[in-house]
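Input record (one chain):
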Amino acid sequence: MSDDLHINNHLTIPRSGLHFKFARGGGPGGQNVNKVETRVELLFDVKHSHTLTEARREQIIKHLHSRITNDGILHIVVGESRSQWQNRERAIERFVELLRKALKPKLKRIKTRVPKIVKQKRLEKKKRRGDAKRLRGKISQQMNE
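The corresponding structure, as predicted from the sequence alone:
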């Protein structure tokens, strides 16, 4: 187990910055569920982490606001497996995945222009369609036009 979690080329978070809580999990496991604390809660203090720059901190808080408490703590809960170790590893995987998505730069949309010929064709098609619908009307209306 390495001490650092590689998020991207610019950010590495030490495992010592992560805190874990354990609880009895539900789901499969029979009597094991009642006596072994397999559910894992990963806690990461986004607001007070010394490894994050202010810009990255804001980006993470903006992107993951629904998972972060008012105190600035990111909460990830995993209880899928009967094994505490597997749940812990899965929580770390989710943590890295979430931070990668949150820190991925947003691409700016490049505005494109509609070509003149496309506009002309669209207007001609609308004109033809309108003519076809007008011809379906009553004959007396057509003679008045």
